Amino acid sequence: MKTVNQTKLKSTTSLNNNLAVVYLRVSTHKQQEEGNSISNQKKYAKEYAENKGFIIKKYFTESESASKIQHNNYLSFENNLSKIFKNRPELLKILDLAKRRKFKHLIVYRRDRLIRNFEMFVKLTYFFSKYDITIHYTKAGENLDSKNNHIERFLELVIGNIAELESNLISERVKEGLQQKVLNGYWAGGKPPYGYTLETDFNDKKTIKPLPIDKEHIKRIFKLYNNRGLSFEKIAQEMNSHYNTNIWYKSKVESIIKNEIYTGKIVWNRRSRKKHSSNKQITSKKIKNAGIITENQWDQSSKLRYKKSKSKDPKYFSTPFLLRDLAICNECNIPLKAKNYGKNKSKVYRCPTKRNHKSHLIIKKDLLENNFIKEFSQFLKTSSTESFWNEYTKRVEKEKDYNKQLKTEISEKIKENNEHLVKIDNLIYTLEDEDMLIPLHKEKLRLSKKIKNLKEYIKQINDYEKKHFKTKEQLNIALERFFEVDFNKLTNSEKRVIIDTIIHQVKVSINDKVNTDFNLEIIFKTKI
Questions:
Q1: Which class in CATH covers the domain with range 393-471?
Q2: Homologous superfamily assigned to 198-270+281-311
Q3: Residue 335 CA from chain centroid, whole number
Q4: Domain range annotation of the chain
Q5: Could you tell me if 172 and 164 are in contact, meaning their C-beta atoms sit under 8 angstroms apart?
Q6: What are the phi and psi torsion angles at 420 (to 5°)?
Q7: 18 with 53: CB under 8 angstroms?
Q8: Numbers of helices and strands, H then E, in the chain
Q9: Mean pLDDT for the stretch of residues 349-377
């Protein structure tokens, strides 16, 4: 039985591969007289089919004069066949059958019976090749053979180029559509990045919306990177430790730090890795309520990444020398070299310029750094209190507005989950089927845990807001304490990030040959 079925399948496939249609056309009485009559064309087609073993499915006869056909757009050719061949109704029927793959061979007397225009001939040939249909010509010399295969190769090249052009044009149009979506603030497709869900608007278009809990994770990651200069791996370890999880790893943190979407803007084509790609990144307008970090936080992280990549030194921020690359010899105007002479020996800053084979400026590391911290903290206390307070109050107000919105969102989530809990409790009360009760109890447990976590987030936000300074005096005391006590408790990386963010240069001038009496001129990156 199995063998019979296979035989039937083979014979059916063979039959389909031998099906042919014949296109017959004359446009003038003169052509009929010259031997191009419909009857002659039909006779030649029948003989040709018999020799090739083809089965003629149908004859299509066209006897009207064809008007000139012009069509320049390869992409829309197939979509406009009825307009292009409006004077060729029989040819249109053949093209329709071709699209439905109803035959495998088209028999025509000669090329000009199909089409005279070479450009249109190439388009038609490409059209039929797309549907695996071979064109056969019954007049001697019309079919290509080994003697003129250079013509065949040329035609294949032209058709191949059209196929590539069509593919590229379709790709470009799809790309343009995606770009326009992004420019309008809509999601172009695919899975949204960590921290976002997709929301469909009234136009049935998708946009991004932050998830309250994930949003706090992202804010913490950027703070760890910007404020402490931690590596991606260290941040992952810190996150797992803080939240008692194991879901954070280096590449996940890196993908977050490098994604501008967290400012509330969608960036299209940001991952294009083609070396000579002409594809430019497309950035959307800022999407309402989609931002998780500020533009300033993004700029800070970008500058930090750039500095780390260009420094060629993985220990740029973890170096024990706080003023490395920042301390400048005022006399020579070149950076002081940070030198560690080895175990149990002094660490020093020295000018690379030598006099009598010896550096003219050598200062012990601790001496220079302690003086810098003293002068820096004194400067902040005496001349910048007002500026700091104004900047601080602005940020606090902005943060309060953000936290208010966040607490509203979390409260809505709690309400929504509580409503689900009530429904589950009602189901548990009414159901008697044990198999149904088990998953309901599991879902109830999951929702209860989620509600507990959301309430904990609100508590954390409220506790954090209580720590804000209420007066200028409280801020002054905190600044003073920071440099006198807290600063020394920070890691080298944390100290370096703070100094590197604020300080442009520290110019060092010596007053004697002993290098213990020196002056410092602190130059800030921005006006404080």
A1: mainly alpha
A2: Putative Large Serine Recombinase; Chain B, Domain 2 (3.90.1750.20)
A3: 40
A4: 2-143, 198-270+281-311, 327-384+484-524, 393-471
A5: no
A6: -65, -40
A7: yes
A8: 17, 17
A9: 85
Structure tokens at 378: 């004194």
Which amino acid makes up residue 405?
Answer: Q
Q: Supply the DSSP symbol for 70.
A: -
Tokens (6 digits) for 201: 């608007």
d(CA 120, CA 130) in angstroms, rounded, equals 15
Residue 229 and residue 64: Cα distance in Å, rounded?
81
Token pair recorded at residue 500: 């590197």
- Other CB atoms within 10 A of residue 123 CB: 21
Q: What is the pLDDT of residue 405?
A: 81
Residue 209 and residue 196 in contact, taking contact as beta carbons nearer than 8 Å: yes
The closest of 192, 169, 203, 174 to 267, measured between CA atoms, is: 192
| Domain 2-143 identical in fold to domain 393-471 | no
Instruction: Give CA separation, 56 vs 18, 48, 88, 94, 180, in Å.
Output: 8, 10, 21, 13, 50
Residue 237 or residue 2, greater confidence:
237
Q: Among 496, 460, 486, 219, which residue's Cα sits nearest to residue 369?
A: 496
Q: Is 172 exposed, middle or buried (0-12, 13-18, 19+ CB in 10 A)?
A: exposed
Question: Per residue in 483-517, pLDDT tens?
Answer: 666 677 777 777 777 777 778 889 998 876 555 67
Query: What DSSP letter does each residue of 264-331 carry, written as one string?
Result: T--EESTT---TT--PPPEEPPPPTT--SS-HHHHHHHHHHHHHHHHH--TTTTT-S-TTTTTEEETT
pTM of the complete model: 0.45
Q: For the residues of 168-182, what is the DSSP string, one character each? A: HHHHHHHHHHHHHHH
Distance, in Å, from the CA atom of 466 to the CA atom of 338, rounded to the nearest integer, reads 42
CA distances 128 to 161, 232, 368, 413, Å, are 15, 56, 82, 58
CA distance 166 to 160: 10
- Percentage with pLDDT > 90 across the chain: 16
Look-up of token digits 């206390």:
381
Residue in 403, 407, 493, 503 with CA at minimum distance from that of residue 455: 407
Name every residue whose Cβ is closer than 8 Å to that of residue 340 and which is 6 or more positions away in sequence. Answer: 320, 347
CA distance 468 to 403: 13
Third-level CATH fold of 2-143:
Rossmann fold (3.40.50)
- DSSP labels, 191-205: PPPTTEEEEE-TTS-
- Tell me how far apart the alpha carbons of residues 224 and 179 are, in angstroms, rounded to a whole number: 33
Taking all residues of the chain, what is their mean pLDDT, rounded to a whole number? 78
More confident residue, 26 or 77: 26
Pairing of strands 337-340, 347-350: antiparallel
Please tell me the distance from the alpha carbon of residue 384 to that of residue 528, in angstroms, as a whole number. 6
